[in-house]
Design brief:
It is built from 24 helices and 22 strands. It is an alpha/beta fold and 652 residues long. The protein folds into 3 domains: 219 residues, Alpha-Beta Barrel (TIM Barrel); 64 residues; 340 residues, Thiol Ester Dehydrase, Chain A (Roll). The strands form 3 sheets. Strands 11, 12, 13, 14, 15, 16, 17, 18, 19, 20, 21 and 22 form a 12-stranded antiparallel β-sheet that branches. The chain has an 8-stranded parallel beta barrel with strand order 1-2-3-4-5-6-7-8, surrounded by 5 helices. A hairpin with a 5-residue loop joins β15 and β16.
């Protein structure tokens, strides 16, 4: 049984004790709490069998990572007494008491519970319970939660169904005040139309706005939406943390300060209190995830890997990643099918031959994503987000038939101030079958901690270069030994050369491409990237977004493919200076792109290099050249900002 801590109660599902199929399925659901029902949903003739089934599932432990509650019948009734009797054979987290009218009902029920680890929840479903909400809320130290019984309450009040939510506002407000005053959770009632997902989402949003901690549910199909609405968004969490930090910093300077200015708004202690509640809500959700990981670690981990957590990384640690990957021509064809990239060097063997190569090399970002994918099981399996890249160099071409393997070294560690996670910096190298490095890059990733109580580690942040130097760019370019004297401008699709681009020039690439669910999943599998946030909908449907996040490498490849219209002769990427995944991308988003020329280098009399920043824009045309605002924050439409060097022929 869980300890008596305040728990996240975003989604709370009623499961009829007489429904064997629903009981069995409950262990697979990403729900915070389960209410095993012995009251309304169970026929009188089925109640005895339902009691046995509930005892069995509680004692089996299959749902011990969830909060488990039994809704009994009215304890003054014969059936209610039988329900209380089963507490001698099982230990739920709480019992839910229906038809409560006044404080003495709770005090009377309390006497029937010998195991004081079992807490009490109450159904607020009668007019008298609403009138007495304040007294009920303070009636017992074992009382932990109000559950609004909106169906029964509406019937008693004689409310029309279409006006029910408006007419119940007074009842909601009275119970809300009472529960908040005595630090109880409060849950909204059920939404009856299980096919109306839009109406359910609107009601969840309304409930969340009123201050409910979560909502009771009658169907598993409602869980995903409910979790999404009642989980703080990354933006809300980030702002809450900044508010608290700003206020605490101001208090250090002046202990008596009561008001500060924060981002042009006046912030008082009440705003700080609200921000702390947002942070607490997030920490409660993370606690559930942590409990899940701890439970997982107690099984036979010698048989499988659960990935590294923040505390598993050490400075100087070297990792040889499994499994080497031989790139095939089929991989290249599938990559083209996914992104529609039209760069001639990677599309035409004859074009490549004219540039002194034996055949078309593997697309730069196919190589990048494969080498990156190798590192995921050891670096990113428990990642929250990949934060950025630096000093990425494409040292040699890779060809179909080459086998790529990856190694990494931990070059930096920094625990975040919240103590829940930290940032790990790694230097990764992808090499071919001859041991020759073909790609070399550094990245940093935010990784969850498994044990948040561990002593904080001393930070060690590497000094990363903001760009691959001009000298390095020229050196890498010369190693390729491209012959561009016979560059086929007709085949490449444009006559534009190095001299045709100016520093600070902006290019709208015009075309857009919609991210399809099947395609981004196929791409993720192509790279053997098994990060949960990208491919595991079962886990992510209960996460902060309620769905999978599109892998950042997919957005990079899409953005690069879109830049063809305007940069078709920037035929070969040889370095990435840095990159930021500014906002998450989801299936259904249409990606556009624009680029700006940051710098230019003359590599030789026939070859030049452009330093380009390409921004991938989500669900917005790129003609506004969206980037950062006056506060240096990315525009919400910016999915990706990538700074890289690309080779381009000069005019003869």
């Amino acid at each position: 049984m869980r300890k008596d801590i305040r728990k996240p109660r975003r989604s709370v599902l009623y499961v009829p004790g007489s429904n064997a199929k629903a009981l069995k399925k409950s262990s697979t659901l990403d729900v915070d709490s389960l209410i095993y029902d012995l009251e309304d949903s169970v026929a009188l003739s089925a109640k005895e069998d339902a009691r046995k089934a509930i005892v069995d599932i509680l004692n089996s432990g299959v749902n011990k990572n969830k909060e488990q509650v039994i809704r009994i019948n009215n304890f003054d009734s014969e059936e209610g007494q039988k329900d209380l009797k089963i507490l001698e054979n099982c230990s739920p987290d709480a019992i839910l008491v229906p038809k409560v009218n006044e404080a003495k009902d709770i005090q009377k029920c309390e006497k029937y519970i010998n195991n004081k680890e079992i807490k009490i929840w109450v159904m607020m479903e009668t007019a008298l319970s609403i009138v007495n909400a304040y007294d009920i809320a303070k009636s017992s130290k074992y009382l932990k939660c109000f559950v609004m019984g909106t169906n029964d309450l509406s019937t008693e009040l004689g409310l029309e169904d279409e006006l029910k939510r408006t007419a119940l506002v007074t009842s909601f407000e009275k119970c809300m005040m009472a529960s908040k005053a005595f630090k109880l959770s409060i849950l909204d009632g059920v939404f009856n139309d299980i096919k109306d997902s839009k109406g359910f989402e609107e009601e969840c949003t309304y409930s969340h706005g009123l201050g409910f901690d979560g909502k009771t549910l009658i169907h598993p199909g409602q869980i995903q939406i409910c979790n999404k609405i009642f989980t703080p968004t990354p933006e809300q969490l980030d702002k809450a943390k900044r508010i608290v930090a700003a206020f605490e910093e101001a208090r250090k300077k002046d202990p008596n300060i009561g008001v500060i200015t924060f981002e042009n708004s006046q912030i008082e202690e009440l705003h700080v209190a609200h921000a702390k509640r947002v942070i607490e809500a997030e920490s409660l959700v993370n606690k559930v995830e942590e409990d899940s990981h701890i439970e997982e670690s107690q099984t036979s981990t010698s048989k499988y890997k659960i990935g590294n957590f923040f505390e598993d990384f050490k400075m100087g640690q070297k990792i040889i990643h499994a499994t080497p990957r031989t790139i095939t021509s089929g991989d290249c064809a599938l990559y083209t099918a996914l992104y529609g990239s039209r760069y001639a060097l990677h599309s035409s063997k004859e074009f490549a031959k004219k540039m002194s190569l034996d055949e078309s090399p593997v697309d730069d970002f196919l190589l990048f994503n494969i080498a990156f994918g190798k590192t995921v099981p050891d670096i990113s399996l428990n990642a929250i987000a990949n934060l950025g890249y630096a000093e990425c160099k494409f040292l040699k071409p890779a060809y179909p038939g080459d086998t790529i393997h990856s190694t990494s070294e931990v070059i930096g560690i920094k625990e975040n101030s919240n103590g829940d996670n930290g940032v790990v910096y790694v230097h990764s190298i992808g090499s071919n079958q001859h041991g020759d490095p073909v790609i070399d890059y550094k990245r940093w990733v935010m990784v969850r901690k498994k044990n948040k109580n561990l002593k904080k580690v001393n930070p060690s942040i590497p000094d990363l270069n903001k760009q691959v130097s001009n000298k390095e760019v020229i050196s890498i370019a010369e190693n390729y030994n491209f012959d561009v004297s016979n560059f086929d401008f007709a085949a490449s699709g444009s006559a534009l050369c190095y001299e045709d681009y100016n520093v600070s020039e902006k290019i709208n690439h015009i075309d857009g491409m919609t991210v399809e669910e099947a395609e981004h999943m196929m791409a993720t599998k192509l790279y053997q990237n098994n990060a949960k946030v990208h491919f595991n909908h079962f886990v992510e449907k209960g996460g902060r977004f309620g769905k999978r996040i599109v892998y950042g490498g997919h957005v990079i490849s899409l953005t690069r493919a879109l830049t063809f219209n305007g940069l078709s002769n920037a035929f070969k990427i040889i370095a990435i200076n840095g990159g930021t995944h500014a906002s998450p991308c989801f299936a259904g988003t249409t990606v556009f792109a624009w680029s700006t020329i940051l710098d230019k280098i003359e590599v030789s009399d026939k070859l030049g290099a452009l330093r380009i920043r390409s921004n991938g824009i989500g669900d917005a045309q790129a003609y506004q050249f969206q980037h950062r605002d006056a506060n240096n924050r990315f525009d919400p439409s910016v999915l990706l900002s990538l700074d890289y060097w690309a080779l381009i022929p000069r005019k003869n």
